[in-house]
Amino acid sequence: MPDTAQSKLLSASEAAARLGVKRATLYAYVSRGLLDRSVALDGRTSLFDPGQVDALRTSSRRTTRGELATVITSSITKLDESGHLYRDQPVSSLIERGLSFEQVADLIWQRDHLVSNWTLPESLRSNLLKVRADLPHMMPTLERLRVATSVASTHDELRSALSSAGFAQAGRWIMLAQSMSLLLGRQRMASGAGVAQSFWPGLIQESRRPGAAATADRVRSLEVAMILLADHGLAASTFGVRIAASVRADPYSIVATGLGSMGGALHGSAALAVVRLFERVAESGPSAVVGERLANGERIPGFGHTVYRKADPRHALLMDAIADGWPEDSRLDTVLRVTGMVMDRVEQPPNIDLALGALAWLAHFDQRVIAVFSVARTAGWIAHAVEEMAERPVRFRATARYVPNHPDPNRLDLSST
């Protein structure tokens, strides 16, 4: 490392002082993977990146009581308020260039080409259609996605190839997004249709309602949503996926792990709360609904984010695509009125859930909006699983500190029996 570069690094004493910890704690951070350590030209002196030290200090200050904080090295996504990056490429640029969801998935997976053959094998397609015909009409969306994952698994004889390279090439598992969309749909899509195009019919709950027609701009807005949601660092579902990959679960079990977190109201189902908000606004008007929530001290869904303090850049990108899809729809004006009304009164920026909920409300996805998030995030889960396969196995092992229960006077005493 050149002397000029090393001169910008911090010594161990400087890094410890900046973090407000002892040197022993500093090196504990290194051993836990929370901080990287470089060695000076003398081969002995430890040096630390000031930017990384400051990031660790900031994250420590943000940690709330009872929250577990961990840092995992990843080269997939960089989060930034000015716009996040996939593999060092601005996501906004990928959207402007018109890349498809499949092409972005290939980029995230670091495949050799950017045009995937996502056509389902005929045997898998046939089985999925048979299974779909037997499913209860009212079966929840997430349950359908889990069934699709299980069916796809039975068609992949290489699902147990668990080396990092073997995992990345594990047969048909990259077809999971198509399998999920097919199990949601009402009709057999043309072979070779893109994920967003084949996905649309299965999301629409009532095709004759205004705004549900699959125009090119509307399908593109769905694709933009899926691109923006493909990965977002170590969200709850993705962290679960990394743990499953660490113990060397097969690809389909790993995706099923991610789906298990998607039903959470604070994660995959957050956009559904936005849909319900707009439904109420349509009945009672923006002022009445927003005013009631604020008067009751209720949180308005779709605003604020644990990562972004000023703005979630994904919101504006998706809203631009939505505006192209529903330019003459009066409901779009309702979305903008609600957004402006809340922003004038609450110091929290709109997030991706607000835009996704608006898309679902305009297109009549209703409760199936959770499938948009889930199918899109499958791309990120796969990338994180492949990345985790290159790490030491079983590296996540939290330690539980046993705390005795307080005596309960109403508890049955069995000591004399």
**SS-based structural class?**
mainly alpha
CATH-level-2 architecture of the largest domain: Orthogonal Bundle
Low-confidence stretches: 1-5, 61-65
Helices and strands, in order, run as HEHHEEHEEEHHHHHHHHHHHHHHHH
Walk me through what this model shows.
With 417 residues, the protein is mostly helical. The protein folds into two domains: 9-62, Multidrug-efflux Transporter Regulator, Chain: A, Domain 2 (Orthogonal Bundle); 82-396, Citrate Synthase, domain 1 (Orthogonal Bundle). It has 20 helices and six strands. It has helices spanning 3-6, 12-19, 23-31, 50-62, 91-96, 101-109, 122-134, 141-154, 164-168, 176-184, 195-203, 216-229, 236-246, 251-262, 270-284, 286-295, 313-325, 330-343, 352-363, 369-389, and strands at 10-11, 38-39, 46-48, 77-78, 85-86, 89-90. The strands form two sheets. The protein has a three-stranded antiparallel β-sheet. A three-stranded antiparallel β-sheet has the order 4-5-6. A hairpin with a 6-residue loop joins β2 (38-39) and β3 (46-48). α7 runs parallel beside α10 (176-184) and α13 (236-246) packs antiparallel against α14. The longest helix is centred in the C-terminal third of the chain and has 21 residues, at 369-389. The relative contact order is 0.12.
